[in-house]
Amino acid sequence: MKKLLLINFFVGFTAVLSFGQAFNMTLEGTWDNTSYNFNDCWGYTDVLGNEYAIVGSRATVIFFDITTPTVPVLLAEFTGAYPGINGATSTWRDFKTYDKFAYAVADVGSEGLMVFDMSDIHNGNIVKVNQFNTDFIRGHNLFIDVPEGKLYVLGPNTTGATGGQNNDVVVYDIKEDPSNPVHLASVNVSGGYIHDAYVKDNILYASSGNDGLYIIDMAVPTAPVFKSFNTSTTAGFNHSGWPFDNGDKMIVAEEVPQGLKLGIFDVSDLNNISFISDFRDPILTGVTGNVTYHNPYMVGDYAVISSYQDGITIMDLSNTNTPFRAAHYDTHVNSSYSGYQGNWGAYPYFPSGTIIGSDITRGLFVLSTSLNLTNTCANGVQDDFEIDVDCGGFCNTCACSAPDDMTFSSPNATTVELDWTAVSTAVGYEVRYRIGSANWTNATTGTNSITLNNLSPSTTYEFQIRADCGNRNTPYATIQAFTTNNCIDNATFTGSQSTGDYITRDYIISSVSTKPNSDINYISGDSIVLLPDFTVDANTLFHAQVNAPCGAFPLVAPSSNLQYAQLHTAEPEANFSLIENDGAGVFYIVANRNEDERKPYSVNVLDDNGNTISSNTELHTRSIVKFKSNKIQKMVHVIEGDEVHKFILQY
Q1: What is the sign of the dihedral through the CA atoms of 325, 331, 337 and 338?
Q2: Fewest CB atoms less than 10 Å from the CB: which of 45, 245, 436, 509?
């Protein structure tokens, strides 16, 4: 009898400690703050292939760089506080990503929806760019239908609700401007309260708590269409689910009461969900209670599951009739099952194969597995999960994403040239721009540059760009601002001017006679504008044209109560003038007057070595000759009769 008891003891002990804390999984790194309690997690991969973890604590949203899995680096931590919004202490937080943005909700307090810009996360910079609680004040979960660009808030408490929940889904459009979600609908749906959901092609697979699994068509967000529903044999609280890669089946976790099995459903017919099987495979056997499963995710034929006191477990579902546990890492070592402690969340969609988990009391776990998880984010083709859930960010080997490196130049006051690095998989680009909150103006191009004309001088514009991927447009990149130059291109002032003061700039000296009722035309060259102190008689038609490229002094635009020039006649001090415009890389020879107006000046331009660049160019009285400078020392000879005038241009 004693021998038999001893054998039974060792058999039981072996069962309890089978495979130990880890089986086919390896701990790479951890991060913890012992004063925190943690909740869910999500992942993000940027266009450079760097990988990041987003983890919730009761009071904050935390961002980590886990590109080196053994050394998680804390990048930033945000509370839910925002102007007019108080931060909350919430047991429940949830996160999802879209393009270069992360979104967060909390199910306690009134934080609403937080929006984070991660476009510069590789430099350690994350910015909370938006937060509002006008449509709902708290939400339990959220999901993003990436191809459709729609964000779903699940289990919300909408603004104005009394006595709790009164709407089941709040839907936003984030496709056009991910930083500023546009409210589409707040609607009740069949099945009541939605605890969590998966959405693909506008079909919402709703984990509707005690009501079971519901399928709802959300193609028109304001008019949901019920398709079908089912409950598992245990009829527990349908907590969350995830479809298999082919979309024909779905795994479901039922969190309440404790110790329920995972269920598998056939969802190939949206109008008729059918139950296939249920199963569990706990780490511990022969102990009090049973494992409780929380959030399952499918990667190929494997389900990666946050499993509370069993940590993270990976189930092989290649044969749904005989599923089994293929790997695990226990983040919360225990000797029995009781309560809801241990691993809350998991995320298995990093291109590197890294898996993260968030333990309620032990923080972030960064793990690897010896299993061959077929993660379509790393296959070089944009096909499966990188479209459906965006792989938390980008498939870095194949993503067609919006350029994030626009550069600007303004060759004149009304033109802006934009350039960016070409996206290899893009077939074109769309640029939009506006002043302040005005409507956007759109322009398209098939190359990685575009010139926008007819803009306003000295004006700040906002610009955004997105890529045309052939079968879809990416979201717009982060807004960038640029101010056009204040140089003036062919500005023309004309009309009958009264006698009085006018405004202009002093560049050249020249004389012109004016008579009452005469028509005066004064046309200058680049960077040359009218001389101040010039008088125009009453009722004289005055016309001045100025061409001032960027880099030259601009004409000052008059205010409405000013006129265009302060004028009186002025005699030049020399027969001709030399005008240098370093910014434009040009210079001018100006003929002010000539004793013999029938005989023009002769202009010779030589380089530093005395070689002729231009010879015998004629310069008539009251005319201008323009020369291009190559920004080296030049010698200019102006011949006036027998006299030669020499000028040296030094740049």
Answers
A1: negative
A2: 436
At 368, the pLDDT band (50, 70, 90 cuts) reads very high
CB-count exposure of residue 187 (10 Å: 0-12, 13-18, 19+): middle
What stretches of 10-80 adopt beta strand conformation (E)? 22-23, 25-31, 38-45, 51-57, 60-65, 73-79
Lowest mean pLDDT across 100-104, 143-147, 449-453 = 143-147
Distance CA 132, CA 183 (A): 11
* Encoded amino acid at 144, one letter: I
Question: Tokens 């709902």 map to which residue?
Answer: 136
Cα 337 off chain centre by? 44
Residue 557 shares a structural domain with residue 636:
no
Give a yes or no: residue 104 inside a domain: yes
Helix (H) or strand (E) holding 97: strand 93-98
Interacting residues of 455 by C-beta distance below 8 A, sequence separation 6+: 413, 414, 415, 416, 461, 484
What mean pLDDT comes out for the span 591-609? 68
List, for residues 502-520, the tens digit of each pLDDT value: 333 333 333 343 434 344 4
Q: 567 and 579 share a domain? A: no
**Which amino acid does the sequence have at 278?**
D
Classify residue 399: in a domain, yes or no: no
At 258, phi and psi to the nearest 5? -65, 150
Question: Is-contact 161 168, C-beta < 8 A?
Answer: no
Which single residue is written with the structure tokens 């680096």? 73
Tell me the CB-side half-sphere exposure of residue 502, using CA atoms within 13 A.
Answer: 26
Q: Over the stretch 59-96, which tens digit does the pLDDT of each residue have? A: 999 999 999 999 999 999 999 999 999 999 999 999 99
96, 143 contact by CB (below 8 A)? yes
Domain-terminating residue out of 361, 392, 423: 392
Give the predicted TM-score (pTM) of the model.
0.65
Tell me whether strands 519-526 and 540-547 are parallel, antiparallel or unpaired.
parallel
Among 460, 483, 506, which residue terminates a domain?
483
* Residue 517: domain span: 489-571
Omega of the bond leading into 181 within 30 degrees of 0 (cis): no
110 with 188, same domain: the answer is yes
Residue 12, φ and ψ in degrees, nearest 5: -65, -40
What is the token pair recorded at 417?
A: 């040239």
**How many structural domains comprise the chain?**
4
Q: In this structure, what are the phi and psi dihedrals at residue 132, rounded to the nearest 5 degrees?
A: -155, 150
Angle 469-51-139 from CA coordinates, rounded to 5°: 80
Q: Which two tokens stand for residue 107?
A: 């199910």
CA 146/CA 284 separation, integer angstroms: 38
Q: Which residues contact 420 (CB under 8 A, 6 or more apart)?
A: 403, 405, 406, 407, 429, 448, 449, 465
The rounded distance, in Å, linking the Cα atoms of 464 and 404 is 9
**Half-sphere exposure at residue 308, Cβ-oriented, CA atoms within 13 angstroms:** 21
Residue that has been written with the tokens 């309560």 in this structure: 339
